[in-house]
Design a protein that fits this description.
4-stranded antiparallel sheet, mainly beta, 115 residues, 52% strand, single chain
Length: 115
Amino acid sequence: QEQLVESGGGLVQPGGSLRLSCAASGIDFSTYVMGWFRQDLGKQRELVATISSGERTYYSDSVTGRFTISADNAKNTVYLQMNGLKPEDTAVYYCNARGWIKDYWGQGTQVTVSS
């Protein structure tokens, strides 16, 4: 069974930090690109960051320098370390596994940045 489960979301003040986790089951990191997307109410879902099997990473312009994506292969878990959070980072964050033809999604975890 292929499954992604996100955790770590919550309420944080501007300038604060959160670490999101994505626990992957039945997902081979060598054949899937792992990524984080986010979607706030009334807004388009957007790509935040990805990490490939070669530990190659990508970040959207809006999070570059503040967010870090990483993977723990032994734990089959992908992380998103979010520093210097801004109100515009508020969204539901989704973990994604993209293979050659198949695409899997987690249930999402809410991140709210507010004072």
